[in-house]
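Q: Hi! New to this. If I give you a protein sequence and the SMILES for zinc ion, can you show me the bound structure?
A: Yes, paste them in.
Q: Okay, here:
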Amino acid sequence: MRLVERFIDLDPLVMSRSRVDRSTDKEAKRKQKEMIRRARWANDPVYRERELERGRKWRREHPESHAKSQRKWRAKNIEYYRAAQQVRSREYRKKKPELLRRLCTNYRKRLRVLVINHYGGICVCCGEVEMGFLTIHHINNDGAEHRREVGRAAVYQWLKNNGFPEGYEVRCYNCNCGMEYNGGVCPHENSRTTN
Ligand SMILES: [Zn+2]
Ligand SMILES: [Zn+2]
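A: Thanks. Here is the predicted structure of the protein with zinc ion bound:
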């Protein structure tokens, strides 16, 4: 009861509450209720907190419905959503450049490990498993061209986005560079055949 009283003090809209009750027009009634709800939301912090908590509780208890309704809302307001997202990320970048830099580094590291592990996580030539030595090798030796195409740092992301296509293998940097300087065959192979 007290809530309502305070609300009445704060907003003249509530003075028309009696009219809401007399109204026979359902749509008008609904609209007026919505306006009252909004006014209350704007003016009554206790109400707002209670409603927010109610929303949080619902989202906790219905994560799937929540995700579904979010998707629906996004699809309906896609332009607004994209613009808002841009503004949000711009502000975030401005506010926390250091954190963002670390997040990006972290993401790139994890992405690299993910992709390398997906392609076996071990050098196909010498059996090196130390992550720091491993890289993705293009079997057709068109690595340079591909890197130019998608961008040097984007190869891992490209592989992930494209569902880890065939034609790539894991090699250590030694075997990778060795191949390049030895006409496409790792020097390991030479010593293996001569021994
Ligand atoms: Zn190797
Ligand atoms: Zn090798």
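A: The pocket of zinc ion (ligand 2) is lined by residues 125-126, 175, 178, 186, 188 (CB under 6 Å). Let me know if you'd like me to explain how to read the tokens.
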